Amino acid sequence: MEQDCDIIIIGGGLAGLTAAVHLLQADFSVMLIEKNSYPKHKVCGEYVSNEVLPYLDALGIYPINNCAKKINRFQFSGLTGNALEIKLPLGGFGISRYALDLALYERAISLGLVFEQATATNVTFGREQFEVTTKDKSFRAPYALGAYGKRSGLDITLSRKFISTKSPWMGVKAHYAGEFPEDLVALHNFSGGYCGLSKVETDAINVCYLADVNSFKKHKDLDTYRVEVLEQNRYLKEFFAQAEPIFEKPLTISQISFQDKSAVENHLLMIGDSAGLIHPLCGNGMAMAIHSAKIASECLSNHISTSKKREQLEKEYTKQWKRTFATRMRNGALIQRGLHNATITRLGVGILQKSPRLLSSVIQSTHGNLIT
Known about the structure:
It is a single chain. Strands 3, 4, 5, 11, 12, 13, 14, 15 and 16 form a nine-stranded mixed sheet that branches. The protein has helices spanning 14-25, 53-58, 97-110, 153-157, 213-216, 222-228, 234-242, 285-306, 310-339, 342-354, 356-364, and strands at 7-10, 30-34, 47-49, 69-77, 84-94, 114-117, 122-126, 129-133, 138-141, 143-146, 169-177, 184-190, 193-199, 205-212, 244-245, 251-254, 264-265, 268-270. It is 35% helix and 26% strand. The protein contains eleven helices and 18 strands. Helix 1 runs parallel beside helix 3 (97-110). The chain is α/β, with parallel strands linked by helices and 372 residues long. The protein has a domain at 7-44 and 95-165 and 256-363: FAD/NAD(P)-binding domain.
């Protein structure tokens, strides 16, 4: 049957772009369908664990060369008491999605990526071929990756279980100018959520928080919510007292779902947030998106070179995804539930203050090792 390329990637965030570069370097023809143009800011913590640095380097992307901030310290505070601070077990870097997505996109284009700026409205599979439909076009390929993010209309057409359940979580992100150490990533708990702070390549401070929608509804707007809720944490109050917003207004996203998702849906290999979303408080979502793209790309490359049955590809990818991420996803969910309970948070902070090694172990439980 006629086909437009070897592999279609639906969605051009971190996972989709990373997979595109990897597969193009392996000499496959790749089409990427993405509704937005580059560069673009996105709601994201913008801290990345160093575990993916060697892999990104192998793809021709080295964020430190793009002025990413080297981060080696972690600070955490609850609603009461002093903040804890430790040296990060592996370290990481701070870079905006505006810069990192653009670097990956330009790298993919230089390798021959076919880029289609459009919204994928449907994807079907039959006769060993995918057909991906946009508003006025359709494209065919024997393989496809779903990299369209946390939530999409495609999840409805694919009848994914999680999509029918409303989520109580919303995310808010903005960049600020002000005083903040460039080697530090901070996580501050507030009633109904938590807020992360770290510097990015422009010296702006990325402020991104996850909040319970029900707690937000009790307040007039984002500014009121910040003053009346976030600033009850004294560290956040001190930060906002001296910081100046760079964005005209914050970016927001709602219906953030942390429910279990399938790594394969109707033969479509899911990567990044489409396969599963770890709680942002774990500070590892960007690294996981990049790593999942690597796993899927290698599984695809091996499958195509050996001409095995598609069922074997799907089983292998699912097995590797679970082996790599299932435990850290579970740990992230447990940590999130604890932080959502004021009593547990207060007791936990007290325990961790007496045992920095325990905090280091908690961080390691949601991160991986260096990816070679």
